[in-house]
Structure formats: structure tokens, C-alpha cells
Amino acid sequence: MKLVKSLLLGSAAGLLAVGGAQAADLPVKAKAVEYVKICSLYGAGFYYIPGTDTCIKLGGYLRAEVALGTNGDFAANMTGVGAAHNRYSNYYTIRSREDLNIDTRTATEYGVVRTFFDGVFSWTTGGYTGAGTGVTTGGTAYDGNNPAGSGSGQVSGGSLGVYYAFIQFAGFTMGKAVSQFDAPWTNYPANNFDSLVGGGGTVTGVNQFTYTADFGQGITASFSAQDQVAYMQAGNVNLGVPGTVLGGSAATAAGILGGAYGLNNTGGSRSPDLIAMLRVDQAWGLFQASVAAHDNHAGYYGAFETSGHPEDKWGWAAQLALSIKNIPTGAGDTINIQGVYTDGATRYNFQPTSSAGTWSAFGSSGLAGAYQSIGIASAPDTVFVTGGGQETIKTWGMRGGYTHNWDPYWNSSIYGAWAQVNYSGAAAAGVCANFFGTLGTTAGTTCNPNFNIAQLGFVTRWTPVKNLTFSGDFNWTHLDQKYSGAVVIPAAGLPAVAKPPGTYEFKDQDSFTLLLRAQRNW
């Protein structure tokens, strides 16, 4: 019995040893997976970042579009080779774009801490510029090489851009965000077209430090210091010595007929723009009033600091905006309107991200002996002559749009804009001294740098499935310039737009564009 007992115990020990060895070879059981949890604190689409109390939401869109009749994806053909209406002008411009935004929020004892980032990757058809020798140069809108190639430092010939990157905490907004001056719809009261005059529109964001006070009942007020360098400087134009042409060399026929009446002579940054805004949000819509102060800090009269300089001059802008929702014409129908006045702060009327601030367009002429017609205009912040102070340019304008929903799948919008630019007597005298000093006098020609811009457009959108929209946006832009008579372009001509020397009639100009878009939001 002892022998049997010993054998049984030995066998059991051996089996336990083998079993232990086999168990050591088995995989260790994984810890329970911490599944992503829905965060319902901040609306749909938020999830908790695993292992944290921070909620995150990802979003964006992919867009493909073609603009007919323009060299800019969103712009009217009112300057450059697009407005030359010749073999250098594009019949179409195509853009593909992917947008990605990341929104994070964390509840703290001081309130919600929020970060927001929005970036885009775009690839856009390029254009060509004449060199005056029958040779053209061109490329994508972002690389500057030939259209088939990739630009140095770019990504596959396209561009990476940052729209927004900001932190919000305890009422403060710090970073790149929409200007507090802008209406909530920025550049788009009802349109896809991106070059409407008549109000501010930092749709791609501007660096700022802002405090927003919430008084309840939908009433808020914001006070902001925002960077003026990137978008808000329309120019401080040096017209040179009165009665001469900037020493005889700087103002050229090509420059003036391109809308550059002198040299932009803005100095280094001194003060951010100061913004105050009051807004009321209610079920019926919203009302907003905003004002801005803008420091115009010019450089020197001449090449050296010993030449002297004009003193700084503060400009300002004021804007009112109104949105009315769910009007009797249909559920979800909306009217958005705004009006703006500026004095030495032109970019708050001519939106900073799209409007070049100069216009030079060509068309047909009925004047005997004229080769073509031309319309020119310019809208800087200030102009000055050597020894004189800055003369501010005054503007006012308005824009608006009405959107009607036909059914859950179709809607249409009509929109329009209008803006006026006025030069003071001294400012106009300086501009006209350069005009006649450079181009000479022609019988019947009058010089008047004042002008108006009028715009009208119509959009129809079809959304066959949720978050997928096809749209067509037709726009008309009209330059009502105040020069009259004719001008003689000298022997050098305008080689950048292939316009030969000869007589050109001053005449109002028009641009017609059609923007076709497919966009998938996610």
C-alpha cells in the first residue's frame, strides 16, 4: 500500500508540474477594454477621450467645385489677367478641399476649458501672367511653378492652411478665431460666392485676445484686441511729392492703371485693432452692433528715416447686423442683413480674406479710336504726400441675403451687396497729381478716384441625402468707377495683361461668375 500511495502522489506531482508549465505558456487574460463613451454634455458627436474627463468631437467636410468665368475660385474677375478678358484669362478654376476640425472640452471648477482647431488642405487650378514677350508663367494658386508640378515646400502642389486655433476659458478667447466685429454669418448672408463687399468677414480667423461677458437672456458683449497685420491693413499709400510722381520713378502707368496710385508704405505694427461688440440672440433671430478702432502707422516719406514721416492716424469702423429666422414664407427661411461705415479702416467694409482692394478691368468700347475700355479703382486706408499728414478714405456699404426652403431637399437664396468709397479733397488731389503726372492729359478726361461696387447673386442647393449638398451660385459684380474720358497707355503698354499701347475709354465694368459645388459634411 505504501508503494501504491507513493506512486499516486508522484504521478499527481508530475501532472501538476506539467500543468504549471503549460499554464505558463498560455496568454495572460487581457484587462477589460475601456470602450469610448458618449459625452452628452456638449451636444451630439462628442465622446470621452479614453482615460480622461475630456470630451472630443471630430468634424469637417470634403468639397469639390468649379468656378466658371473667373481666375479665382471665389472671386469676381475685376483685376489681373482674369479681368483682361484675353488668352491669359481662365475660363474655369477648380478647387478640391478637405477640412478637418477638432473640438475638445473639459468641465472644471472655473467652467469649461475648450480648444478648437480647424485646418484645410486645398488644391486649386492656377493661372498665367504675361511677361510681355509672348511667354507666360503660371502655376497653382499656391506654388508658383508650372501647373503640373509641385511647388517648393508645398504638398503635392496644394496648400495646408490653419483657419482656427484657439483656447476658450472663463470667458476668454485666445488664438485664431472669427473676429468679434463680424456678423455671425461672416461672409455669407446667403451665398457661396466669397467676395461680397459691405462688411467684415474673417472667415479664416484672426489672432485675438477677447473677453466675452454673458448677461443672460441671450445678451452678450465682447471686448477684443486683434491682430491687424494679416488681414486688416488695406494700405497707407505714399503719393510722393505733391505735383510730381514720387521723385519721378515710383508711380508708373502700369501701377496706376492697375489701381496702385502710389506705393503702399505701411510701417511696422504698433497697436492691435480694438473691438467692442454687443449681441442679442433670441428665438426670432439676432441683433449685433460692433465697432473697431484701427491704427494707421505709415513708414517714411522717402528711402531713409531722415526723410521724415506722417503721424499715426486712427481710423474706425461701425457695423449693425440683423438676422430674422422662420419668417412667414416657410419653416427655416432666414433673412440676414448688415450695414457698415468705415473711416480709415477700409478692410471692415471690403472683407479681408477675398477683396484685393484694387480693381483694374477691361472691356469693349464704343469710343472712336479707342482700342478697349478700362475701369480702375483702389480702396486703401489712407493716402499721404511728402510733408503732409495721412488722409483717411471713407467708405460705407451693406450686404444681405434671403434663403427660402422649398422642401427638406431644396432651398434657394438671393443675395446682394453694395459699397461706396469716397476720397477727401486733399486725398483726391494727391491721387490726380500722380495720375496726370504719369499718364499726361487727354481731352475730356477727368480724374475722380471715388467709386461704387454693386453685386447681386442667386444660389440653389439640393441635398438628396443628409450632409451631401450640390449647389450652383451665379454672381454679377459691377464696378461703377468715376473716371471719365479716355487715357493713353504709353509705348511700354501693360505687358502683365498683354494690353498694347493705345487709347482706352474709361468705362464701368462687369463680371459674371458661376460657382458649382459638391460638398460632403461629416
Write the layout of secondary structure elements.
Blueprint: H1 2-25, E1 47-48, E2 54-68, E3 92-108, E4 111-124, E5 127-130, E6 136-139, E7 159-169, E8 172-177, E9 206-216, E10 219-226, E11 236-238, H2 246-249, H3 253-256, E12 263-264, E13 273-282, E14 285-296, E15 313-325, E16 334-343, E17 358-363, E18 372-378, E19 382-384, E20 391-392, E21 394-405, E22 410-422, H4 425-439, E23 451-465, E24 468-481, E25 486-489, E26 502-506, E27 509-521
Parallel strand pairs: 11-19, 18-26
Antiparallel strand pairs: 1-2, 2-3, 2-27, 3-4, 4-7, 5-6, 7-8, 8-9, 9-10, 10-13, 11-12, 13-14, 14-15, 15-16, 16-21, 17-18, 19-20, 21-22, 22-23, 23-24, 24-27, 25-26
Family: Belongs to the alphaproteobacteria porin family.
Membrane topology: Multi-pass membrane protein
Signal peptide: 1-23
